[in-house]
Amino acid sequence: MTIQFVDSRISSQADTDEAVLVTIPVAATPLLFGDIGIQTAGVEVANQGLVRVQLTGFVKVVVGPQFGSVTIQVFREGILIFTSTYTAVEALENEMLGFSAIDFPSAAYVANGQIRYTALIFTAFPNPATTAGARNFSGFATAGNFTG
């Protein structure tokens, strides 16, 4: 079966640091900064078990060692598929956090016609100085194998 392009989606919550600067909340109420639905209705039945999804994102954060850390998580239909934590070590720092996650959803998810992916960020301790500036999330999917 040949490689099949499935879908590509983007979610841009803030395209500049000043656009929507927000305080990063704690884990109990994380900030949802990305929400995409990869459309899979057109995937050929023979390819439904061969779907690969690549997800990328970016968040500009301000965080300091006295404020703990920030964690980014990515979910497929509410199931955690990626997590990464950043801890500032010296002083109040402006950091650009980029990430890449991959997923191999089962044929059952693909057959539903859409797979929802969400990206969240939260901090270990509440502090109004721990903020998120520009942030985005995107994903694309392919299916099949090259057999020739």
Properties at a glance:
single chain; 148 residues; mainly beta; Jelly Rolls; 5-stranded antiparallel beta sheet; 4-stranded antiparallel beta sheet; 1 helix
Describe the structure.
The protein has one helix and nine strands; from the N terminus they run βββββββαββ. The protein is mostly beta strands and 148 residues long. It has one domain (4-142): Jelly Rolls, CATH 2.60.120.760. Strands 1, 2, 4, 7 and 9 form a five-stranded antiparallel β-sheet that branches. A four-stranded antiparallel β-sheet has the order 3-8-5-6. The longest helix is centred in the last third of the chain and has 5 residues, at 107-111.
